[in-house]
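Before the break, one more example. Copy the sequence into your notebook; we will annotate it together after we see the structure.
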Amino acid sequence: MDIAILFCTCVVVLGVASIQTQLTRSDRRVARVERKLDTVMRHLGLEEEVPRKDEILALVRDGKQVQAIKLYREATGAGLVEAKQAVDAMS
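Here is what the structure looks like once it is written out:
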């Protein structure tokens, strides 16, 4: 009975490690594609349109950075660091 539990534990651990490796590879691929897309957009002179940009800019002008970052995240689905960098670039 103890051997069966040990075997099942090993299988689960190996399965989780395999899934983590695949996710890491996928993250790297997505990052590479995003860098290429950013390069193409810069070359064409295009900028990504930010939804609700006017509202975000109004919050920045009023000195409400935290609310601006929160609104940026809600509008774009960006992470905290990315949203902070984008709002800082707007000010």
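The helical segments are 2-44, 53-61, 65-76, 80-90. The two ends are 64 Å apart (CA to CA). Try to locate both features in your own notes.
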